[in-house]
Design a protein that fits this description.
9 helices; DNA-binding transcription factor activity (chains A, B); Arc Repressor Mutant, subunit A; transcription cis-regulatory region binding (chains A, B); mainly alpha; Tetracycline Repressor, domain 2; HTH-type_TetR-like_transc_reg (chains A, B); Homeodomain-like_sf (chains A, B); homodimer; DNA-binding (chains A, B); elongated
């Protein structure tokens, strides 16, 4: 707070609960980008919300795009890493797919800000965000591979392999519309994914195996 | 073009193919909002893209929000009306749900601009767009009712009733990521919805009934 000059009111009074200045900036930006909009938010507004000078913000991020890129990267890093860990497992693809969905859904539902709502920004289609797009494609490919294997094991054509990744991301729209999403939605969506890849019967065993796998790998 | 003053270049050279000035404004706004972003687009930029004066634009719309509201209303009006027509039909709920999904998916896929990408704008959570949100809720409830009936007919619990509406909207993200979406995606998503509401076997008959119903009602 000692950096807070006169005429520069702190917009957010409550603590940001973050451990480093960088994390505080990301938290403030996450709030402003998702509640006011990306284009409507200046780096000055982010600095004000943290209670630091704009010059201090530029010590951590050289532009607003850099802040957005860091926020977006955070939304993908966890599930990509988890998907890579799943690749070494030998349990059925449908179990691995269910576990990946649960992991990803939990993160999308409980993240402090609904950052996935930024995925549709036209800004993300520019060169600046190509690395992010590639990383998100990588996650999408993990889903499609697991979904394709699950469909094949169920003797179904693999057209539906594109759906599970998209179904997980429906959490973003539900959270955006309702302001929040109930914890049991994770299982509802993961069950839906299981149906789509050909699990027609009782899902109790699949859920239990996937939950155990998730617990073991996290 | 006679309204085009000096120093006001027409940004878009090609014809907007619209029949009325109002439709031309909506088309230009749809393009700019989805490619440059809503906050990044001024009514002046929309007027320039149409090749009219800003004052002429205000003859049709009193604000940028009014243009957005009109665009959003267009995305919902068709499927809501179709869902109302379906309510009078006596065929199985799963067939009506499949037909509604096909209708809605076709529109989302082929609309000139991917306007659904605007649904996550923070601006839409303001009072100004309450009527739109209510209208979209109405469409969501049509989906949930048909999905609930389908699940009940399949002797399944109705938790998954929230998924079909969201699965249809995955067309928006797919179009946004890839720039376009293949026509056969309509059936892939509608099939996925059928699986989620408990259609476990061959879907050929369901597809045929739903396609016939769609053709009869449109």
């Amino acid at each position: 707070m000692s950096n807070l000059g006169p005429g520069r009111p702190r917009l957010e009074q409550r603590s940001r609960r973050a451990e480093t200045p960088r994390a505080e900036i990301l938290d403030a930006a996450g709030e402003l980008f998702t509640t006011k909009g990306y284009a409507n938010t200046s780096t000055r507004a982010v600095a004000d919300a943290v209670g630091i000078r704009q010059a201090s913000l530029y010590h951590h991020f050289s532009s607003k795009d850099d802040i957005l890129d860091a926020l977006l990267a955070e939304t993908i890093a966890g599930p990509v890493e988890f998907a890579q860990r799943l690749a070494d497992e030998t349990v059925a693809a449908a179990v691995r797919l269910y576990a990946l969905a649960l992991f990803d859904l939990g993160q999308l539902r409980t993240a402090r800000w609904n950052l996935g709502a930024l995925y549709l920004l036209p800004e993300l289609r520019t060169e600046r965000f190509e690395a992010f797009r590639r990383r998100r494609d990588e996650l999408r490919e993990h889903y499609e591979r697991l979904a394709g294997e699950s469909l094949s094991a169920a003797s179904l054509s693999d057209e539906a392999r594109v759906l599970p990744f998209r179904m997980v991301e429906t959490m973003i729209g539900i959270r955006s519309d309702a302001g929040t999403a109930p914890a049991d939605l994770d299982q509802v969506i993961a069950d839906g994914i299981a149906r789509v890849v050909g699990e027609a019967g009782d899902l109790t065993a699949l859920r239990a195996e996937a939950t155990a796998l998730l617990a073991r790998l996290t």
